[in-house]
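Continuing the series of single-chain predictions for the mutant panel. This is the parent chain; the variants come on the following pages.
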Amino acid sequence: LFQPPLQGLLILLIFIWSMLGTGLYIQAMTYPLVLENTTDISLFEQYWFLMYAAFAEIPGIALAMMIVDHPSFGRRLSIAFFIAMSIIASAITIVCLAIGGLWPIHLANMLLRFTVTVPYELMYVYVSEMLPTSHRNQGLSFGNGTTKLMGVLVPLILFPTIAYNPSIPFFVLIATSSLGLVFLLWLGKEPTEFLQDVVSQTAELEKQRAAEQSPLLKTEKAVV
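Parent structure:
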């Protein structure tokens, strides 16, 4: 699994997925504490506000299902679009926390939940289509397990900062999402129309991609 040609690809995919998972866990774990520390509503009301935020995932996933197979978007650009939207939503949340007020904070977190969940979920599809059938389950299991590890680390690192400033976790969310976006765009690969079955097919595909990225070099060698 961690041998060429899958080694570099898998490490990048796991890193991107982990960054997106970190953003998702930050929103899911920080918002209840924000409600508790910045508002005076009852526990029952807090529960319903959390339910409203969870329901915000539904239209986000529905929108992702509409555009993920569109020829103008595809897997990678769909993920990149929602990452960019989650960064904007995080900035809006920070502004709303500075302004104060229950509904601005709640609506901003609903928008954030709408955008931050989708790229994480789409990575299941993207990773599975980028890996050959022979290694797909291993890659998905390892990548998903790594994202869950980030979920364990998030409260240990970020929760102490909430008492100091509740906006700090959302700044970290912007940073992790930005890293995921940069490396996703740098990866620059879309799944092929047909899935690869074995590693040798993935190696051949990588050679074709390298040739497409440097066609002049290939032609020059052929002339010589």
